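Appendix B, record 7
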Amino acid sequence: MRGIVLFTAFTFVTLVSLQGQDDPAFRKHDPKEDPNINPFRNYSINPDSNLAINPSVNWNMNPLKDHEKNPLQNSTINPMFNLQLNPQSNEVLNPVFMKSLRPSTNTWKGMFIFNDSNNLFGYISIATQNVMISFDNNGTWNGYFVKAGALLYNYFTVPGVWTGMFLCYDNSSGYNLFDKNGKWTGIHIN
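Structure tokens (predicted):
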């Protein structure tokens, strides 16, 4: 029995990794292959170089400075109060029920999360226009993003607690992740 469980776990992890780096769809999103989507080579999508996309300077994209974008100040974008945005309460957003949201499925379409070394760090599934589901690089659901404005998503834990972290659009094709102090983490999404 233990052998079957180990084989199943190995197969799942293998499928998730194959869905990522060996998939031709992944290669189109790989910042190591395409300098246009690499914020460390394309300074127009790097918030440390382009202040227009840096929330520490551009307060229009900073939930710490703009109360409309802060889920602690605005209950309409807080999944603890607006249950339509909460995967724990809305099965359409929950990857436990909606298997198509999982990056391990053959039909998965989504975005890829890269760390500050441009290595694959996780996956994003677009559940609705207002909610994106986040997975680590093993395909484990680890949280979700809720839209707070045209250029901004706040990051919540699986139970629905705001981490203070948020995504800002890079004005090209992806997003950059900022910590609760508004500093870019180096993590970027394509």
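Remarks on this record: The chain has one domain: 2-189. Strands lie at 110-114, 120-126, 131-136, 141-149, 152-156, 162-169, 175-178, 184-189.
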